[in-house]
Amino acid sequence: MEYKSPSLTVDGVIIKDNKVLLIKRRNEPYKDKWAIPGGFVEYGEKTEDAVIREIKEETGLEAKIDGLIGVYSDPDRDPRKHVVSIAYLLTDIKGKEKGGDDAKEAKWWYIKELPDLAFDHHNILDDALKLYYK
């Protein structure tokens, strides 16, 4: 008997000076939509290492984890398949933002002027802001 299991991703929220770092997606789903940087966890990789790697690949920034935002597991959150995401709050520590890998662009957005976001990233960002401004 074959068992189906969800895929695992990470998302990394970086907030600075009332701005949040977002990426413009290069690929479907949600091509050209803005999203929180993140991606799939590789086999044998810790989620903490995956989020640091994905931030570096997609934004060019080196970052450190400040805390866990939450786990997002709605089976319909990704149109491709059932994907569970672990979201982290991070601080950028080095580098200049630039799009890379799956990201066409990386840009700081004022929290009060955010674009429409891909996936369920508005939920993740709402939870991140509650933690950040606690």
Written description of the protein model:
It contains two helices and seven strands, in the order ββββαβββα. It is an alpha+beta fold and 134 residues long. It has a single domain, classed as Nucleoside Triphosphate Pyrophosphohydrolase. Strands 1, 2, 3, 4, 5, 6 and 7 form a seven-stranded mixed β-sheet that branches. It starts with 6 loop residues before the first strand and ends with a helix.
Characteristics:
134 residues, Nucleoside Triphosphate Pyrophosphohydrolase, 2 helices, 19% helix
Brief overview:
With 134 residues, the protein is α+β, with helices and mostly antiparallel strands. Helices cover 19% and strands 40% of the residues. It contains two helices and seven strands, in the order ββββαβββα.
